[in-house]
């Protein structure tokens, strides 16, 4: 059973899930309720698993302002804006990563390469990430990349089509299929590789594989940690 996403009249993400799966306790404690009511079911299993038994011994993400220290500031320096280094204004993604400064810095460098510097066309990158977000049931990732997708020219109709595995041409359809195959089989079929190779050269193909894999891992983290949507999302 999969969580499905749609855009309402305010163009915000609204997952459609059965009512009997709409409540659960977050793993970071009782303070997290909104996102965990929607996104944190292991949706790729035939029988979804609600993992509400485990709790984290610490406060929920993002890292509380009184625990931001020089180590956190150093980890983020030169990588994010001054606003994203302000614990009162930081996104929930950065605030969560701030809990682990040694992980945050190298991860953000890698992530920013995939997002801003890879060889992939922006449109291809966002289609792939949106498909990963949908297939993994990651509400946070989906919401972020709905916005980024629009910025690179995707229409709302095209974004909605991603949830159905539909695209404007055979190549973009192959991008979505690539995400599906990698998430399910951890490999690409010869037919999908061939279809992608018609427009993507070697380095672009490599970047696509790493983009899909990396955003799948990020979705796992978002879902497991119960990361809530940012207030402005």
TrEMBL record:
Residue span(s) of domain Carboxymuconolactone decarboxylase-like: 101-179
Region listing for Disordered, in residue ranges: 1-24
InterPro entries xref list: AhpD-like, CMD-like
Pfam short name (any one): CMD
Compositional bias segments (type: Polar residues): 1-10
Sample GO molecular function, one term: peroxiredoxin activity
Protein name: Carboxymuconolactone decarboxylase
